[in-house]
Records
---
Amino acid sequence: MNPPHIPEQPAGESPYRRGRRPEPICETATAAHRTWLEPVRNRFVASGLTLDDLVGRSGYSKTRLSELLRGKNYYPGWEITYSVVRALDIPVGPLLRLWKAAAVEAEKTPAWISTRIRAVQPSGRDEPPLAHVGLTQTMWHPYSAYAQAFLQSAPRARQAVGETFDILWLNWDEATTSPSPDTPRFAWMPLRSKVLSRTPRRPAGHYDLRAAAFSTTVQAQAPDLVERLARIDVFARFFDAIARLPADQMDVTVLRYLCGIAPTAIPGIVGLPPALTHTLDHHARWALKELFPDAETQE
C-alpha cells in the first residue's frame, strides 16, 4: 500500500499530519485570544483531521486556516472562526462569547464585532452537559465571591466567572475523563487564572488586595470617620499580607476570611482533599502571624 499523500506546504512551514499539533501560537496573540484558540487547536489535533481535511470542511484556504490556528497576523473574523468551530463540532455558544471578549481586547469596534456575527446564521442551539449545569449552579456563588474579592467589581467578577465556565464547557471531555475528585480542581484553575490576570499587582510583585478593606463589614460599622479610616488601614495591611501567601494558601484564606465560605465547603470549591485544605489553612494562619502579627483569624 502506498503511503498517504501529504500535500506540499509553503516554504518554511511544516506539514500538518494526522495527530500532529499545529505550529505554536504566535507570541503576539493576546491572553483572551489564546483562551478560545487553545481549545480549538486541541480539538483539531484530537479529531485526527489534516489541514487539507479542514479546508474541505470549512471552505477556507490552507493559508488562512493556518494563520487562524496559530493566531498569526490578524484577529480572525467570526465567519472563518465559526466555519472551523462547526467543522470540529465545537459548542458554538461558549466559543462565541470567548471570541467576542478577545475581539474587544484586540480593540475591534462594536460595529466590527456585530457585523461579523450577523454574517453567520448559526444552526441549532448548543446545550451544556447536565453535569456542567450542576457544577455551574453550585460554584457560581463561591466563584463570584472569590472574583469580587480581588476585582472589587461585580460586572468584572461576573465576566471572569462566565468565561471560566465557558472554558470548562469547551474542555468538558478532558475535565471529566480525570478521576471525579479532579473535576472541581480542573474548573478552579482557570477561574483563578482569569481572576488574577485582571488583578493589579503591587511593586513587590504580589497581588493588590488592599481595596477589599473598603468593603468589609467591620470597618463599615465604625462609629466615626477617624475610627473607620483606622480600621481600613489595618484591614488593608492585613489583606496585603494575605496576597503574599503561596497560591493555594491564598485561595483558602480568601475564601474563608474574605468571602465567608464555611471551612467544610472549601475543599469542594478548590478541588483539594479536606486534610490538605486544613493544612493549607493552618500554614496560612501561621504565615499571616509572621507577616502581620496583629492578624486575627479564628480556628
---
Amino acid sequence: MLTPSAPDTGQVLPALASPGRVLALVARGAAETRADLARLTGLARSTVSQRVDLLIEHGFLDEAPDVGASGRRLPRRLRLRTRDQLVVGIGLGATHCRVALLDVGGQEVVSREEPLLISDGPEAVLDATVRTARALLAESGRSAASVRAVGAGVPGPVEFATGRPVDPPIMPGWHLFPIPQYLAERLGASALVDNDVNVMALAERHWVLPDVQHLLFVKVGTGIGSGVLAGGRLHRGAQGSAGDIGHIRVGAADAPCRCGNTGCLEAFAGGAALARRLTASGVPAATAADVARLVAAGDRTAVPMVREAGRRIGDVLSSLITFFNPEAIVFGGALSSAHELLAGVREAVYERSHPLATQYLRIAASGTRENAVARGAGLLAIDHALSPCQVDGLLDGTAQRTGAAP
C-alpha cells in the first residue's frame, strides 16, 4: 500500500491527531484498529471513534470484523477504502500520452496510451488527455466523483509550486501555462504537475526498489534528465529544477544544445544528438528510439557511438556519486534498452568513482518501463489526496475538490 504523508514514528500529539492524521496512520499500516489509534495518538477512545466514524462516513475508511484461525472474533479492522477512491495519472511525451486510473492504494485499475504531438500546444493536448480519462472512467464503471486528485508528468522543467512549465524546449506554447487549473476544472479534482523524470523516480521506488532510500533515476531519451530521491523523498530543489544533468557542460563550446547553451551533456549523449550524428554518418535515424533499434541490430556505427555516449554520461554520474552516494542508479527513456549505453556508463563510473561509493551500487535499466510516467504521476496524486491537510480540508469544507493543489 502507498505510504502517504504522515508522522514518521512514535506517538502523535493529541493536538495534531486530526482526522487526516488518523487516516494517514491507517493508510501507512501503522494502525489497524481503533485501539491502535488510541495508543499511537494518546486520544481518548471516544475521540478516536468520532474521527474514525467521520472518515468512514466520508468514504475514506472501511471497518470490518476479523476472524482468527480458531474462528474467534477479533477486533474490527480498519482499512483504507479504495474501491471508489481513484486518482488520474497522466504521462505526456513528445509523441504520445498515457493515462492511468489508480485507486488510492496504488493499484492500477486501467490505462491507455494515445498518440499525440506535444507541439500541438497545451489546450489540444490536455483536452485529449481529459477525453481519455473520461473514457477510462466509463470503461471501468467509475464515476467522475470518485476521482480524488490528478497528477501529470510532462517532458520539461516545471516550477512545482505552481505546476507551470518554464521554458520547456520541446513544448512550444507551454511556457507558464496553468496546467493544474486547466485539468482541475475539467476533471473536478485538485491537480499537480511535475517533470516526467521526477515521477518516474517515484514509480521506480514504489514498484521496483521499495527499500532504496537514495536513488538517481536517469532518463535518456530525446534529452537527458534525472530524478533524485534522498532519504526516500523526492528532492526537487528550491524551484523544481534539481536533477537537470543534461545541461551540465562536458565538452567543447562548439556543440550547440537545444537549451541555447553549448557543450551540454545532452548535446553529446542525448538521443536527438545521437540521431543527428548517425544520420550525418550515413545511417538514417530520426529519434532516440531509432538509435536504440540500430544498437539492438548491432549497427557498426551506432554501437560504438552509443557506448561512448554512455561513458560521457558515466563521467557526469561519477561526480554525482561522489557528492550524493546513491544506492542505485536506474535508467529509463528510449535509450535505456541499449545495453551498450549502460556498459559505457559502468565503465566510466567504476573507473572514476571511489570504491566505497560503488561497492554496493546498482546500475540497471528501469523495471517500470513505458508506464512509469503515468503511474508515477498517479503516486503524486495519491500522496496529495491522502495528505492530512487535504483530508482535513475536505472534511471541514475548507478544501476544494477543484482547483490547483497547494
---
Amino acid sequence: MKVRYNRLWKLLIDRGMKKSQLREAVDASKSTFAKLGENENVTLPVLLGICQVLECDFGDIMGAISDNKEGKTQV
C-alpha cells in the first residue's frame, strides 16, 4: 500500500490556502512538507496537526493505493 496526499492539495485549493500557510500553522518543517509532496510517510502528529488546522479527518487529506499492478484503490 502507498499513501497519496492528493486530497490534501485539493482541499487546500478549495479553501484558498497555500502550502506554506498550512506548514506554518502546523509548525512542520519544510522537509516534512516535501515528504507530503512526494507521497512519503510522515508522522502521525503531523497528520493530526493538519487535520486540526483544516478541521477535517484523515480520509479528507489522504488515501491508500494498492501496490498491485491493477492499481485499484484499497481505502
